[in-house]
């Protein structure tokens, strides 16, 4: 999917919501456990109930790897289901990969080509040749960790590198990489004031924003400081939506929560 | 496996060699492709031919993920085979994972518990709470990226953070984390002179050293600057050993290459 197609979807749906499909078997409705593939059935129900309210789904690969081969089958079925039934959805493999060049190429092929995700999240620590392989696919994107939403973000990301925080150096440096127009960035919602600084470096790039909801970030604050002319934001919510209920009505309740966010986004987009 | 057991194995085998099982179907002997699981058959032959010459095997997960579900089956069969037949081997899942706490916990469980690897490689960018979940398993280890062997290492890892290179800040900070005695570090062989600096911070920690061989690093140089009293080094070689031949004799040739390295290591250990 091109960036323009993503922007068009945001305008059409009046939503820049991304729903994180972080499926934990201990948290999903227990009646699903009788089915052959409870994770896929859960995802399918959530997707069918919310696809008109969001523009993106983001399965976190850890939650699938944790169930071994069965987990990978669920991931594969989930991405295939989205691609076939809802091709207008921007899909994100939240994998946070990154390795030496030939190895990153294998990861990129696995997620962007074989599984056919629109994008994959990557870690910047190993630098240019660990990220560029993810940028080599037409109309596909790498979403690089810049400033994350967890406590540990302050261990290194905000450290002072020659007078500037590391996350800024990471973003600035990445702009010089080949096919950098295919880069998006992870910026946590728990630090809304940082968005002003980030927008000075990348005025128009898309930012994937975790941390709204369960982790305590504010949608209003993020949009105030982080929204660009072309919106430029994908706000992720996982637990707050998918675990809204663990009863028979889980999909319906997930829809209600997604709709609350979509309505708030609609108001913000009209401003 | 405890660190002491690893040291005992090194003394017993007179080797601190780690063999990287980075299996690419386009590079393995073509007669294996007729078998049901070529990747596992390749690994099995390499392992049977080299296990007395090395102390560790390190499958890089990218090479398995690239083949989807079949790849994960090969990975599972490989680790099970090593654990059952050669329990004295120190196993490393080279996965370079790292995410917010609850997600890192899922990854840690997948690799250290379910797949039962002795260790897993992790990325430091997200800080303390992204790494600590990997340190919570008794007699298991997290091997954290410090200074990698690729060109991109100079993009951020060697940047000056308040008068000190980032990789040093990363190592120093990690020493304060819970169960930090379970930490080992990835340090590339292509920068042997850096080992002196690193040993000032962590005199005894184990270092996993890629970059000897195909990437151009020197075993002699690494040992000169990096060896500790308890050896403290695992030297990885992947392509130079496993792809020594792509004919019927591939396992035999791999053994020859592994033996060359083991003999060189034996001489170094006797000094």
Strand content of chain A: 15-25%
Q: Give the strand tally of chain A.
A: 10
Task: Determine the most extensive contact between two protein chains.
Answer: A-B, 54 and 54 residues
Secondary-structure element order of chain A, N to C = HEHEHHEHEHEHEEHEHEHEHH
Whole-number mean pLDDT of chain A: 96
Annotation field: number of helices of chain A? 12
Number of domains of chain A: 1
**Oligomer description:** homodimer
CATH topology-level fold name of chain A: TIM Barrel
Low-pLDDT segments of chain A: none
Structure classification of chain A:
alpha/beta
Say which CATH homologous superfamily of chain A is assigned. Answer: Aldolase class I
Task: Characterise the protein shown here.
The structure is a homodimer of 271-residue chains. The first copy, chain A, has 271 residues and is α/β, with parallel strands linked by helices. The first copy, chain A, has a single domain (3-270), classed as Aldolase class I (TIM Barrel, Alpha-Beta Barrel). The first copy, chain A, is built from twelve helices and ten strands. Chain A has helices spanning 3-13, 38-50, 61-65, 68-85, 101-114, 128-131, 153-156, 166-174, 194-201, 219-226, 239-242, 250-270; strands at residues 17-21, 56-59, 90-97, 119-122, 141-147, 160-161, 164-165, 183-187, 207-209, 233-237. In chain A, the strands form two sheets. An eight-stranded parallel beta barrel of chain A has the order 1-2-3-4-5-8-9-10, surrounded by five helices. A two-stranded antiparallel ribbon of chain A has the order 6-7. In chain A, helix 2 (38-50) packs parallel to helix 4 (68-85) and helix 2 packs parallel to helix 12 (250-270). The longest helix of chain A has 21 residues, at 250-270. Chain A is globular and about 55 Å long. Chains A and B meet through helix 3, helix 4, helix 5, helix 6 and helix 7 of A and helix 3, helix 4, helix 5, helix 6 and helix 7 of B.
């Amino acid at each position: 999917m091109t960036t323009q197609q993503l922007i068009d979807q945001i305008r059409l749906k009046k939503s820049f919501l991304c729903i994180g499909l972080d499926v934990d078997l201990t948290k999903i409705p227990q009646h699903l456990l009788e089915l052959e593939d409870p994770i896929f059935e859960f995802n399918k129900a959530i997707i069918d109930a919310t696809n008109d309210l969001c523009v993106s789904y983001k399965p976190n690969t850890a939650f699938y790897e944790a169930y071994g081969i069965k987990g990978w089958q669920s991931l594969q079925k989930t991405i295939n289901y989205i691609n076939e039934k809802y091709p207008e959805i921007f899909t994100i493999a939240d994998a946070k990969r990154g390795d030496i060049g030939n190895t990153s190429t294998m990861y990129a092929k696995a997620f962007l080509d074989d599984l056919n995700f629109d994008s994959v999240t990557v870690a910047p620590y190993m630098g240019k040749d660990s990220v560029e392989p993810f940028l080599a696919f037409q109309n596909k994107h790498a979403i690089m960790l810049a400033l994350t939403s967890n406590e540990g973000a302050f261990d290194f990301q905000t450290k002072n590198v020659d007078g500037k925080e590391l996350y800024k150096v990471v973003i600035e440096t990445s702009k010089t990489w080949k096919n950098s127009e295919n880069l998006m960035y992870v910026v946590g919602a728990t630090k809304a004031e940082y968005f002003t600084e980030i927008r000075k470096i990348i005025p128009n790039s898309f930012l994937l924003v975790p941390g709204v909801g369960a982790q305590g970030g504010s949608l209003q604050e993020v949009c105030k400081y982080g929204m660009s002319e072309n919106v430029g934001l994908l706000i992720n919510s996982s637990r707050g939506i998918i675990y809204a209920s663990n009863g028979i009505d889980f999909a319906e309740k997930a829809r209600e929560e997604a709709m609350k966010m979509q309505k708030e986004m609609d108001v913000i987009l009209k401003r």
